[in-house]
Amino acid sequence: MKYMEEFRDGAVAQRLAGRIQAYAGRPVNLMEVCGTHTVAIFRHGIRQLLPPNVRMLSGPGCPVCVTANADLDKAIALAQMPGVILTTFGDMLKVPGSYSSLQRAKADGGDVRIVYSALDALDIARRNPQQQVVFFAVGFETTAPTIAASVAEAQRQGLSNYSIVSVHKLVPPALRALLDSGELHIDGFLLPGHVSAIIGSAPYQFIARDYGIPCVITGFEPLDVLQGIALLLEQIAAGEAKVEIQYRRAVPPPGNPAALAQMYAVFQPGDAEWRGLGTIPASGLRLRDDYAAYDAERRLAIQTPPPKEQRGCRCGEVLRGVIAPPDCALFGQACTPENPLGPCMVSFEGTCAAWYNYGGA
Fold first, then answer.
1. Are 28 and 55 in contact (CB under 8 A)?
2. Which sequence spans correspond to the domains of the chain?
3. What digits encode the pLDDT tens for the residues 161-198?
4. Sequence-separated (6 or more) residues with CB below 8 Å from residue 279
5. Model's pTM, two decimal places?
6. Radius of gyration over alpha carbons of the chain, in Å?
7. Backbone dihedral region of 276: left (phi > 0), alpha (psi from -120 to 50 degrees) or beta?
8. 144-164 pLDDT, tens digit each
9. Is residue 277 helix, strand or coil?
């Protein structure tokens, strides 16, 4: 309780802002990887506290946004199949695929249901034994362990009508791909707290070791973000590159071994396609052979036309931090939260939605 009282103290915010504004080094680009960080930075006016030589870039840390059209098209095709109940998280409904969306498929008569966890989807399968229930499994390492648990439980119960489409993504391989692209210069990373609560700090060590780039695993309250930025700038000023954990109240260095064990008992790494980044080796999770019966792509004959992108949408460049949303001609004009043309405007964690809702100053 004492810690939280001190953490809410306005004097703490002033001290942290002072540490940030004291940075007098070269111009730097800091990337917040997580969409939740992006929203916090905009919502609480943190950009306005930064000195002119510190620039924040938004990275590919929104799982809805990085889901490729080819994968969305599979979910939409499943939703259009007779006898199939397609379940997924609510923020996937409005995301446009190549030709349609899950929301439109539902309006056209498809049985599309929003769930809050994969265990809800498992319960739907239990109550509808005559129908195939498919969970469209989107997310990073944060959600993968619980989805793995649903598959293991389906096997334990002998449920033959439950399966998933795994489009899970792993964050560290994407950061390596981003750095190897050479498309932009990144001087420091604010790393996602909830992903790190599962995987710990070790999977990020290559960023500091191989690329000489400082990293700070950061929480989501405004003071968390301020402290994370201050720690990054202090590493840069000192010429250091290490992985620090600001979010120690939730992230132990080894992460959550039990969750990781559950995840890797059911899943194994596989190549995955990321919007804006292309196919990244070993950056996704696919079901192990022992659980192949719960792979909807193996169980059901999914047929989709070749994927295509929305003309003019620059969501992929936004996800790589190459452009800011206003650099896209569609932003705020043809593309708004009410009429999203790309996933970065759909998700609450999307960079375009954050710019639109809170302003980009």
1. yes
2. 1-308, 315-358
3. 999 999 999 999 999 999 999 999 999 999 999 999 99
4. 271, 272, 273
5. 0.93
6. 21
7. left
8. 999 999 999 999 999 999 999
9. coil
